Amino acid sequence: QMFVAYVNLGFAHAELGDYESAQRTFEKLLQTAQSVGDQRSVAFAHEGLGYVFMTTERFPEAWSHFDEEHRIGKATNAALTLGYAANYRASAAWKLGRYDDARADFAEALAIAAPVGQEPYKDLLADVISSSAALVLSETKFPEASTKAQKALTLAGSDYKTIAVRARTTMGLALARSG
Question: What pTM value is reported for the model?
Answer without folding.
Answer: 0.93
